[in-house]
Amino acid sequence: METIQGLQDVLTEREINTLAITLSLGISDRKGMYDCAKTHRHRHTDALDEIALWLDWLKAKGAKDVTLFGHSRGGNQAAWFAAERQHDLLQRLALLAPATWNAERAASGFKKNHGRDLAVVIKEAQALAAQGKGDEPMKGTGVLYCPEADVTPNSFLSYYLPDDRFDSPALLDKIKQSVVVIAGSNDTVVAGLAERVEPMADAKNLRFVLIEDADHFFLDLIAEDVADAIEELLAPEGS
Description:
globular, Rossmann fold, 4 strands, 11% strand, single chain, 4-stranded parallel beta sheet, 2 domains
């Protein structure tokens, strides 16, 4: 995505080494955006396993110190990983506009994007999964940003079954590493992020940075402001 490409370029100019991974979403050697015409079998928490695999890969390559970065849904997956799993390479997290969540907003968004009642579809998916059909596609159901897409019940439930861990701010007090949460003042996607995280920030392990005039994607020159926040996170204590 352009957000990641732009930020990676800026960090490279500052001589900060980065690895930008492409989540598989169930497709080997996947490139580019996911094709909505394909059956969706991926799950939200697949990302946690893949983060662990990439950290192991980096360790095998000789890396000693990793800061995990994630944007939007990726920010939630990074926070979820750090809150529930341990890896000796993982030292810090930089979360750029990490996803927020509540059940009412999730239901409203699904209705708007897919024209169906989310609770009804969840019940359908649960019933199919209970019958041992969790990996058989539900035709034309729609998922995430793909209207009328075919999706398996197990995939659908991984994204829509209510779970407080979809809400990134709720994970922050479970993370032991130093964290910076970066938000944009004009971001209309992650509702209430700044209002919730800023009061939580402290001098110990959680910092909050609000970038003025930034929307959800932090493009062009605003990437420099994001890089500033990351560089400050990377700076040795007392420097």
